[in-house]
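Practice problem 4.
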């Protein structure tokens, strides 16, 4: 039986999981693909720490260049992370004619167009299923299973850290800081959680999915990004009263002449299947013109779920090597000459429904002042809720709006914020509800 040699760059958590699967499940994998996947060499700057796996002597080395330049290695698996060193190693490996598997969403979102062009020019495969959604086969679904569909929209929970935090706030009434600390303690959040909680990790993934779904190049810079650090238990309680929960969503929509691509906290109704995705799970609802709505969900991170997706990519490339069919599936799902630039709708032009929470002094005519400013900016109020007096003398005033344009919303909120009767920063949360009655 043919042997295909693998070089692994990076022997951290996921890299260790990849090695475990390739070594421990070697015979089972071979029986499925018709070749032995031989993990020949691993490169990592740390060659002394113990991992939960036994390696042959000399397999683990500190020199990534030796792996990339090994003429016997067919596939390079990049598990280093980051944008600079990893990108250069991938480009060098492509230059040496190696096929590439990576889970590096930040690199792909930021420099993926360059890497894809290099792989195409050299005639090697580039696979990246584990870069989005961990073990969920979202990329395979968009590139292969849904090839006959015009993708209309994608709405998903793509960051387990944020979903865990919002779930804890919702279920336990924890503050954001308390929920974050628990997420860090349980290993769901990094010591520096900024990329997660401020939405950039989700934006990296949305940039990749948007290209795959809508036939564009990868475009990170035009995605609107807003994180969850301002979400409070109070807003989650109000949302629950209205029949909503709050999730950090990645939203991509084909609007015809332009795309929507945005990441922000969003109120969704409890009837939406995404409302039931709790803890560190990920999920995406894809809407296609043939299939309607379909949902994928699963573990978006972790050693073995992510490693499983990586090994799936290795197996796909191995099958291509066996059959001599490199490039059978385009890297971004569309033929290179059919990939077109499509503008992303500026967030100012978004038209949607909104939740506002104002902190205002408990005085006469406060509500009429706020309502008047909203009306001046063509923002129609669907409902108003005013709760009990707070100890500070201020009361929360909560409003849900009919459809409104974002730029008018911000103009109105800036005017309202300047009122002397408004005592705190106004909270704005966008609403995604197909059954919202205007």
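Answer key:
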């Amino acid at each position: 039986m043919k042997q295909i040699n693998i070089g692994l760059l990076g022997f951290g958590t996921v890299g260790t999981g990849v090695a475990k699967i390739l070594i421990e499940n070697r015979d089972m994998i071979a029986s499925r693909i018709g070749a032995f996947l031989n993990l020949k060499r691993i490169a990592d700057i740390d060659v002394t720490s113990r991992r939960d796996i036994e390696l042959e002597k000399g397999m683990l080395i500190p020199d990534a260049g030796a792996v990339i330049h090994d003429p016997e290695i067919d596939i390079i698996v990049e598990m280093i992370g980051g944008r600079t060193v990893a990108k250069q190693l991938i480009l060098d490996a492509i230059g040496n004619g190696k096929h590439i598997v990576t889970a590096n969403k930040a690199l792909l979102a930021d420099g993926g167009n360059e890497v894809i062009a290099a792989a195409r020019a050299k005639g090697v495969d580039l696979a990246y299923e584990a870069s989005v959604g961990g073990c969920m086969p979202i990329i395979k679904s968009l590139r292969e299973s849904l090839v006959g569909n015009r993708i209309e929209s994608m709405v998903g929970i793509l960051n387990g850290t944020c979903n865990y935090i919002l779930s804890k706030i919702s279920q336990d009434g924890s503050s954001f800081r308390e929920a974050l600390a628990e997420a860090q303690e349980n290993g769901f959040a990094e010591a520096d959680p900024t990329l997660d909680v401020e939405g950039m990790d989700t934006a990296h993934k949305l940039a990749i999915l948007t290209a795959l779904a809508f036939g564009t190049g990868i475009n990170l810079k035009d995605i609107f990004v807003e994180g969850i650090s301002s979400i409070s238990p109070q807003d989650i309680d109000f949302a629950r009263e209205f029949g909503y929960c709050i999730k950090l969503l990645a939203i991509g929509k084909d609007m015809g002449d332009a795309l929507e691509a945005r990441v922000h906290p969003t109120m969704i109704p409890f009837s939406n299947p995404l409302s039931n995705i709790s803890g560190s799970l990920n999920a995406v609802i894809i809407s296609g013109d043939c299939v309607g709505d379909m949902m994928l969900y699963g573990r978006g991170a972790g050693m073995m779920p992510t490693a499983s997706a990586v090994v799936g990519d290795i197996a796909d490339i191995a099958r291509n090597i066996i059959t001599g069919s490199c490039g059978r599936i385009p890297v971004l799902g569309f033929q290179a000459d059919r990939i077109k630039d499509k503008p992303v709708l500026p967030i100012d032009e978004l038209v949607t429904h909104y939740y506002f929470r104002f902190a205002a002094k408990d005085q006469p005519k406060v509500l009429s002042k706020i309502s008047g400013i909203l009306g001046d900016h063509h923002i129609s109020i669907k409902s108003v809720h005013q709760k009990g007096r707070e100890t500070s003398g201020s009361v929360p005033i909560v409003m849900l709006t009919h459809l409104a344009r974002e730029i008018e919303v911000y103009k109105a909120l800036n005017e309202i914020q300047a009122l002397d009767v408004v005592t705190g920063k106004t909270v704005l949360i966008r609403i995604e509800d197909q059954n919202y009655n205007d």
